[in-house]
Write a structure and sequence with these properties.
Layout (H helix, E strand, L loop, with lengths): L28 E5 L2 H12 L17 E2 L1 H10 L8 H9 L5 E4 L9 E8 L3 E2 L3 H8 L3 H13 L3 E5 L2 E4 L4 E2 L3 H16 L6
Antiparallel strand pairs: 1-4, 2-8, 3-4, 5-7, 6-7
Length: about 200
């Protein structure tokens, strides 16, 4: 008996995805400083033949940065009896996406800052519990428990179907200016969740 198979329309010739409005909670507006003078100096340095590393605008960056506040944070939580599976965290870091922004209105100058739509924060990874479990050779229940503890420790601060977001103060992949701008928004959003009794 031949199994019934229906092609996925996403991979069919001529498929046009349905346009979706950007979700403000996932793609907030951030304000970045005008860096045209710094860019000009960088171009001049390249033209002078200096040995500098230049990344293309949409080039993939295969590493992330871990910042000092993370180490201070884990020193503080180590005094508890909670055990963390750091291998799970390292897999999440491996899959972090590079930060991406798009200008909203190039003419809008707000005190030397310009508005951008944050398309992709550099602290968000798109992967499932099953993917993590397969990479580590463990059960999904082990991964689920580890992620729960990282959420309780506020290392994983946002999450949804098929994605996890780390604290931008701890981990980031991409432009440092975008990280600083997003970390301020991220912290404000996190503080809204706290209920003071």
């Amino acid at each position: 008996m031949v199994p019934f198979w229906e092609p996925n329309p996403k991979y069919t010739w001529g498929f046009v995805p349905m346009p979706r409005q950007p979700r403000p909670d996932l793609q907030p507006i951030i304000y970045m400083r005008d860096v045209s003078a710094s860019s000009r100096r960088a171009r001049e340095a390249i033209e002078e033949g200096l040995e500098v590393t230049v990344y293309e605008r949409h080039a993939r960056v295969y590493y992330h940065r871990t910042y000092a506040p993370f180490y201070r944070h884990i020193d503080a939580i180590r005094i508890t009896d909670v055990k963390f599976n750091w291998n799970v965290l390292m897999v999440i870091c491996k899959y972090l996406e590079i930060a991406e922004i798009r200008p909203i209105d190039a003419s809008a100058d707000i005190g030397g800052r310009y508005p951008f739509r944050l398309i992709q924060p550099g602290c968000r990874a798109y992967l499932t519990h099953t993917q993590i479990a397969d990479e580590l050779g463990c059960s999904t229940e082990t991964v689920r428990e580890a992620i729960k503890r990282f959420r309780e420790a506020e290392i994983i601060v946002n999450w949804g179907q098929g994605w996890l977001e780390l604290d931008a103060e701890f981990f980031w992949k991409g432009n440092e200016g975008v990280r600083i701008a997003y970390s301020q928004i991220q912290r404000r959003r996190l503080s809204d969740r706290i209920t003071v009794i």
